[in-house]
């Protein structure tokens, strides 16, 4: 790795030390289905989002709930105190496409239909609500 790339990589790592996030890689659902669940809680206060995800009937919401609990635990670990109600919110959440398993299904007349089994990567950032955000 060149010096310029190493410096920018180190700067990126330092910036991540001040942010609180959790990642979930290679989730075996399509990114579109996961984005529908992620859109439900984007920008919400974390304990309200936990309630929304708990009572949602989407399969992807169970995985997001677990990821959100992990992000809250990461925040508590770095700040060495418990999160209070109304203090944290989901600042960013995004879903990227992951690896795709490609399969063939037999079809009539010697053909084969392609089956794409999609997966995704979810990244969730939490942050504290400051006085500037409330105005």
Would you summarize the structure shown here?
Helices cover 44% and strands 29% of the residues. The chain is α+β, with helices and mostly antiparallel strands and 135 residues long.
How large is the share of residues in beta strands?
A: 25-35%
CATH domain class name: Alpha Beta
Return Rg in Å.
Answer: 19 Å
Give the N-terminus to C-terminus distance in angstroms.
45 Å
Average per-residue pLDDT, rounded, comes to 93
Q: How many domains in all?
A: 1
Report the CATH topology name. Answer: Ribosomal Protein L22, Chain A
SS-based class: alpha+beta
User: What is the CATH architecture term?
Assistant: Alpha-Beta Complex
Main sheet: which strands, in order across? 1-5-2
Number of DSSP helices?
Answer: 5
What does the largest sheet look like? 3 strands, antiparallel
Helix amount, in percent? 40-55%
In the predicted model, the low-confidence regions spanning at least 5 consecutive residues are none
Order of helices and strands: HEHHHEEEEH
Question: What gross morphology would you assign?
Answer: flat
CATH superfamily: Ribosomal protein L22/L17
Overall strand count? 5
